[in-house]
Amino acid sequence: MKNSPATVSGSSESLNTKDMRRVLGSSLLGSIIEYYDFILYATAAALIFDKVFFGNLDPGLALFASFGTLAVGYVARPLGGIIFGHFGDVLGRKRMLVLSMMMMGIATIAIGLLPTTASIGIAAPIILVLLRMVQGISVGGEWGGATLMALEHAPASKRGLAASFANAGAPAGGLLATFVVSGVSALTGDQFLVWGWRIPFLFSAVLIVVGMVIRLKVAESPVFKELESKAAVVEKKRRTPIMRVLRNHPRTVVITLVASLGFYTMQGILTSWGVSVAVAEGVERSTVLNIKGMAAVVTIVVCFAAARLSDRIGRRSVLTLGGVLGVLWAFPALYLMHNGTAWGFMLAVLVGNGVIQGILAGPIGAYISELFPADVRYTGASLSYQGAATLGAGFTPMIATALTLAGGFVWVGVFWAAVLILGLIAVRMSPEGAQSQQVVAPSKKELQRH
Q: Is residue 1 a part of any domain in this protein?
C-alpha cells in the first residue's frame, strides 16, 4: 500500500504550523545567506575584480577575465550537486545543508581577506579562482537540500509554494548583496576599490553564525526518514545515486536541465553582463546597484505568487507563460540597457529580472524535484538545476561579451531568445508533476526494481 503525501509530508494541508514555519524559515534564510555570498561575487566580478585582480590587462580583456573567474563558480556547481546529492541521498538532507553553509562562509571571508595582484602577483587571481570553486561546490549542494527539505515536509497541495522559499532566497540574497555593496560604496567613496570592497565579503561571517543557529534546529526530511526505514541502504551500497540517476533517469535530467536554462540565461545577461553595460554606457554605479536591488524585490514577490499559482494550474503552465514572455522581452530589454539612461536600465531589469524571472523561479524547484523519485531526488534535481546554472548564468556574461565584440548586441538577443525557446520545448515535453506521487518515499519493492 502506498503512503499518501500526508503520511510523509505532514498531516496538515497548511504551511502555518510551528514545524513547517521553522523548515520554511531555514530554507529561505539559508538560501539568502548562500546566495548573498555567491551573487556578491557576481557583482564584484562586474564592477571590482577586473580592476583589483586584472588591472594589468586592457579593460575589455580584464572584464572578460573577471567574468571568467565568475564562470568557474558555476562550473563547480554541478560537481557540488553531485557530491552533496550523493551524501544527501545516503546520509540525509540536513547534514549536507549545514556543511554547505560552513564551506560557503569560509570561502567568502577568505576572498575578503585576499591580497590583490599588486601585492602578491599572479598568486592572487589563482587563489581567487580556487575560492570561487569552493563557493560553487557549496551553492551546488545548497539548492537541492533547501528545496527538498521544504518540499518533502510540505503537504501535497502546497509543495510548489514550499519549494519556492529556497528559490526566493536567491533574489533576496542578491538584494542584500546589492544593497550592502551600494551602501559600502557610498560610505567609502574613492577608497571603495582600495579596501572598501572587502567589507561586504567579511560581513558574511555574521550571516553564517545566524544561519547555522537556525539550520541546526530543523528536523530531517520525513521522506528521507521513510527511505531509511525501508532498508534503502542496501540498494545504495549496490550503486551510487549518480549512477542510478544516469542509468534510470537520463531523459528527466536532460529535459529539466534545458527547461531551467532560460531562467539562468536571463539572469546572466541582466544582472551580470547588463550591469557592466549600463555602467559603461554612463549610468552611475550606485544607481545601477539600487535598480538591481529593486528588481530583486519584485522577483521575490512574483516568485511566491507564481509558485502558488503553479499549485493550482500546474508547473508547466506557469513555466510556459514565463518562457513566452522571456522570448518577447529579449530585444526590447537589450535596447533599453544600451540607451545609456537609468530609466532604460530600470525598465529592462524590472520586467526581465523582476517579473519574468520571478515567474520562472516560482515553480522551478518543485517542477524539477517532483520529476525524480525520492531515493535519488537530491542528486537528480541538483544535477539538472546546477547544470543549467553552469551553462546559463555561468557562461552567459562571457558569451554576451564575445557576441557584442563580434557583431553587436543584436546577437545577444538571438542567443537569449533561442535558449528560452529550447526551454519551452523541454517544458512541453515533460509530464506535469504537481500531483506526482513520486514525492513520497518508495516501497521496498520499488527500491529493488531500481
A: no
Predicted pLDDT of residue 352:
95
Of 302, 311, 272, which is closest to residue 394 (Cα–Cα)? Answer: 272
Write down the pTM of the prediction.
0.81
d(CA 51, CA 54): 6
122-166, pLDDT tens digit by residue? 898 899 999 999 988 998 888 888 888 888 888 888 888 999 998
Higher per-residue pLDDT: 399 or 16: 399
Residue 52 lies in a domain: yes
The CATH number covering residue 168 comes to 1.20.1250.20
Instruction: Please compute the mean of the pLDDT values over residues 239-243 and round it to a whole number.
Output: 80
d(CA 196, CA 315): 43
Convert the chain into a string of H (helix), E (strand) and C (coil). Answer: CCCCHHHHHCCCCCCCCHHHHHHHHHHHHHHHHHHHHHHHHHHHHHHCHHHHCCCCCCHHHHHHHHHHHHHHHHHHHHHHHHHHHHHHHHCCHHHHHHHHHHHHHHHHHHHHHCCCHHHHCCHHHHHHHHHHHHHHHHHHHHHHHHHHHHHHHCCHHHHHHHHHHHHHHHHHHHHHHHHHHHHHHHHHHHHHHHHHCHHHHHCHHHHHHHHHHHHCCCCCCHHHHHHHHCCHHHHHHHCCHHHHHHHHCHHHHHHHHHHHHHHHHHHHHHHHHHHHHHHHCCCCHHHHHHHHHHHHHHHHHHHHHHHHHHHHHCHHHHHHHHHHHHHHHHHHHHHHHCCCCHHHHHHHHHHHHHHHHHHHHHHHHHHHHHCCCHHHHHHHHHHHHHHHHHHHHHCHHHHHHHHHHHHCCHHHHHHHHHHHHHHHHHHHHCCCCCCCCCCCCCCHHHHHHC
pLDDT of residue 265: 92
Q: Is the pLDDT of residue 306 over 90?
A: yes
> Is residue 257 in a domain?
yes
Domain encompassing residue 158? 9-449
Q: Looking at the 3D structure of the chain, how many domains does it have?
A: 1
Residue 439 has pLDDT above 80, yes or no: no
In a domain, 4, yes or no: no
Q: What is the mean pLDDT of residues 342-365?
A: 94
